[in-house]
Structures are given as C-alpha cells and as structure tokens.
Design goal:
By secondary structure, this protein is α+β, with helices and mostly antiparallel strands. It is built from 5 helices and 19 strands.
C-alpha cells in the first residue's frame, strides 16, 4: 500500500513538471516585452530663434531723487501742509516757519532802502550840477570833491540798503519750504512748533522737516565681479524683477559703469535705471537684475534639458534613440545654442533622455512645441 502511494506521488510531480515546461513561448515573449518595453519620451523640433546670454544679480532699489526738506534759516515751524504718502508737484508749498519777525525785518529793510535811495538821488542831482559848474570854473575843486564824495557815499549806502533788503527777502523766501521736484512725501520728520536749526547739521535732534522722494524712475546699484565687468557697457539693456510682481518684467538700461573696483568688496559698481511710471517698484526693496551680455539672432536653439553630460543629445530616429555629440554656444537658464551636431527640423528628446542608451527603442508620447 505504501509503495502504491509513492508511485502516485511521483506521477503527480511528473504531470505538474510537464505542464510548466510546456508553457506557450508567445506568453513568455509577451511578458518579456512588458518588462523590457520601449522608453516613453517627449521630443521637440530643432528651430531657429534669437538667444541671449544673461547675467543675474541682486540689488537694492533706490529712488531717482531724494532730499530732506530743511529751511536755510533757523526758526519755529508754523505750518506743515502735507502728510506722509502725499504726492506733490514741483514748487508746491510744503511747510513754513514762523515768519512774523522776518516780515518785520523785511519792512525795516524796505524803509532803509527807501531812505538810502532818496539820499542817493539827491547826491546824484548835486553831482550833476557840480559837473556843469566845474566846467565853467564856477566852483572850487574843494567844493566839487565834497559833492563827489557825498555822491559816492550815497551810492555805497544804497548798495548796503539793497543788500539788507535782499537778505530779508531771501530769509522770508527760504522760510517757506517748497518742493524742488515732483514726488512723494516719504517721511514727516518734525511737527508744528518744533524749533529747527539747519546750522546744527547732524547734531540736531530734528533731521529736517520732511523727506521728499521721486521714484518715477528707480536706480539700482549692483556689484559686478571682475570676470563679468568686461562684458557690461553703458546703455546695455537690463531687466528688473521683484517678488511683489513675479510675472512682470521692468525694462531698464545700464547708466553707469565704474572702472575702479571697490577696495574692500573687490567688485565693480554699476548703476541700472528703470522707468517706474506706475510707481510699482518701491525704494528700499530688493530686485533681481538680468543683464543681456550677448545676443545671437537666428540660431539653432534647444531647451537646456535636451543636453546630456554637457555635450550630448538624443535624436528620435523613428522608434530608436540616436546619441549624438553637439557643440554648444550661448546659454541661459532656459535655452542653449547648438553650433553643430543637429539640423533644423530634427526631433530631439527632451524628456526621458537621461539614462537612455544609443539605439534604445523609444515611444514618442508628445511633440512639445514651445
């Protein structure tokens, strides 16, 4: 009985072995194809277009003009007519000092000038009469000299009175503070009733009355490395981008290129000027500056991701990938110029190319047009 059970077991094992060994070759081939199928890729057609090599720097945005409004004479602030954030026009009155004492001094100077002018006119008439008499020998030289000195003295007194009058008028004029240019009030540094003394300078606790800025244009100062400064010229195009408007570009130009490096930073300063008519760019913030240092027109161009190991691309030749060495030219963050190795209209793999082998089977999923 035991021997019979052993024989049945052996028969069952042989039947199972024959079933597995007789599996269809087509099924096995299909499984291999599923395991080792074509690589899915995306391609782009080589085309000609403009390409620019660019440098990227970060700089601080500054107002085109900035000034602290301070009177030329000291005194007590009587009125401030504007507040922070107000837009003002050139010549607009912003603030004024207490001018009562100055106006009294002006009246005094006007009266003194009137007296001096009358004395001068009288001395002039006397001299003209003496000029006629001296020619006729009707007066002595001593009399003539006395009248002449009185005339010269009257002229000097008139000049002195005119200078005092001009000084009083100037004191009144500078006591009324006007905007030297159109702009925005950035800060209000004093209050009505404060006494300001411009002669104290930085020792005064009050730093002027107001701060006026004009940021209808923006200045951006950038430190450039020694390798890059030779590629930057005055008048060169510069593009500014700020975090507040990530999808917007502000076009400007290089207005200044310093030929001497900063002794501490070892960098060369350049200045970029950007028009800001909508006042979107704000002074004191940071921005990224893009400088176009070289441009080639009508070049064969590919996306950066098409390049493998800095010198190879994969062409899509039917359902096969062909590895090819290329020579690259200008480059930026998005594009690369191809000097040799491809022709216009070639299909180049831009996705699925890393790890791909020459001659590998591929399946094109999409032809990218941008």
């Amino acid at each position: 009985m035991k021997r019979y059970i052993k024989l049945n077991g052996i028969v069952i094992l042989l039947v199972l072995f024959s079933l597995f060994s007789c599996r269809s070759p087509k099924k096995e081939e299909k499984a291999q194809q599923e395991t080792f199928g074509a690589s899915p890729v995306k391609v782009i057609k080589v085309k000609r277009q403009k390409i620019s090599e660019k440098l990227y720097y970060t700089g601080t945005l500054d107002a085109w003009q900035k000034i602290t409004i301070t009177p030329d004479v000291g005194g007590k602030i009587a009125q401030i007519y504007v507040d922070e954030g107000d837009r003002v026009s050139k010549g607009q009155v912003l603030a004024e000092l207490d001018t009562e004492a100055i106006r009294l001094q002006l009246k005094q100077a006007e009266a003194a000038f009137a007296v001096a002018e009358a004395s001068y006119k009288d001395a002039l008439r006397n001299k003209e009469r003496m000029d006629r008499l001296i020619k006729e020998n009707a007066v002595s030289e001593q009399q003539y000299e006395k009248v002449k000195l009185a005339f010269e003295s009257g002229g000097a007194q008139l000049e002195q009175a005119q200078a005092a009058l001009n000084l009083a008028r100037h004191a009144l004029d500078v006591s009324i503070m006007k905007a030297p240019f159109s702009g925005v009030i950035a800060s209000k540094n004093s209050n009505v009733g404060d006494v300001i003394n411009p002669m104290m300078g930085s020792f005064s606790p009050v730093s002027g009355v107001l701060t006026l800025v004009d940021f209808s244009r923006i200045k951006i100062n950038i430190g450039i490395t020694q390798n890059d400064i030779l590629r930057i010229k005055k008048g060169q195009v510069a593009i500014a981008k700020v975090p507040a408007y990530p999808d917007r570009e502000f076009r400007g130009t290089v207005s200044l290129v310093n030929l001497a490096a900063d002794p501490l930073a070892k960098k060369f300063n350049i200045e970029v000027v950007v028009d800001n008519p909508e006042f979107l760019l704000r002074p004191g913030t940071f921005g990224e500056i893009t400088l176009e240092v070289s441009t080639h027109e009508n070049s064969l161009v590919l996306p950066q991701k098409a390049i493998v190991e800095n010198k190879y691309i994969f062409l899509a030749q039917g359902n096969k990938a062909e590895k090819r060495e290329v020579t690259v030219g200008l480059q930026n963050t998005d594009l690369v110029e191809i000097i040799s190795g491809v022709q216009e209209g070639d299909l180049v793999i831009i996705e699925g190319n890393f790890g791909l082998e020459n001659g590998a089977e591929i399946k094109i999923l999409e032809e990218v047009t941008k």
